[in-house]
Amino acid sequence: MTPLCTTIAGSLPKPSWLAEPEALWAAWKLDGDALAEGKRDAVRLVVRDQERAGIDVVSDGEQTRRHFVTTFIEGLDGVDFEHRKTVRIRNRYDASVPVVVGAVARRHPIFVDDAAFLRAQTDRAVKYTLPGPMTMVDTLSDAHYGSREKLAWAFAEILNEEARAIAAAGVDVIQFDEPAFNVYFDEVRDWGVAALERAAQGLSCTKAVHICYGYGIKANIDWKKSLGSEWRQYEETFPRLAASTIDQVSLECAHSHVPIDLIGLLEGKDVLVGAVDVATDRGETPEEVADVIRQALRFVPADRLYPCTNCGMVPLARDVARQKLRALGAGAELVRRELN
Ligand code: ZN
């Protein structure tokens, strides 16, 4: 594997003919067969953009999903997504979410066809993202289980079935997104990491987790301002992940107040270091990306360091996201040349 293999955290903006641009949870502009075809065309475009930018482990940019959590939940039995409820999520903002009204179950594959389609679009390694169990629990309203932990375990088993099928479609990396790990530390300790491991149990591919400070939306930017001059949230979770069966940890770093030495707590793991800020429209220069990578190299060897984006880029304009991808690829290449 190339040293400083680049990848992205997950989402990329969708074309404006497919969904309302620069928005989370944006409504589709097509339906029926036209929507199915449009989603696949959008996947082709983001794969091409990543390849041209020099991204090594390519994602579908979540072009087939309205939202990284709720689109998965909506594929399950036991969930009412017509009568949504507005609840506070991540302890910070209100969102309209589906309601769990009975025992949750996966009666059919949800993203497996999409993963197989992504696999067929590129010769590069591919990554598929799924929500993590705790973040799923934190992105819905529960009227059945009455316990976040019990519901998380039910989701972990379902996620494991789905992940095994996605891995069998030839995907190289499955990443579980757990932004909730940066908020609910007692739950991370008590059952969060164990439920994540259950979701990833027995997978034949690389197992990753992404933990961030959220998309570049106002509620998250305001929250970050309240966190002080040093963000030490990862100090709680990284030692637990270092002792876990998870192979890779994706974290936010560029333009954050995360002390870079915290990645030293992930000994033995691959580290996907966020070298591109997703909370600004300003495009990084390759030199700025290279600078984050050089700092991270003080704590992680190059063959375990994956330059990445801080988080998903779905709320950004497409040209901004493409510029950031190019900076990521070019920044990693700058540092690779220094290593030789
Ligand atoms: Zn994220």
Brief overview:
By secondary structure, the chain is an alpha/beta fold. It is built from ten helices and ten strands. It starts with 31 loop residues before the first helix and ends with a helix.
| Strand content range | 15-25%
**CATH class category name:** Alpha Beta
Task: Give the CATH topology.
Answer: TIM Barrel
CATH architecture: Alpha-Beta Barrel
Distance between the termini: 15 Å
Count helical runs: 10
Give the overall silhouette: globular
- pLDDT averaged residue by residue: 96
The biggest sheet, with number of strands, parallel, antiparallel or mixed sense and barrel status, is: 7 strands, parallel
The total number of structural domains is 1
Strand order of the largest sheet: 1-4-6-7-8-9-10
Q: Which range best describes the helical content: under 10%, 10-25%, 25-40%, 40-55%, 55-70% or over 70%?
A: 25-40%
Number of strands: 10
Low-pLDDT segments: none
Which structural class do you get from the secondary structure elements? alpha/beta
Which value, in Å, is the CA radius of gyration? 19 Å
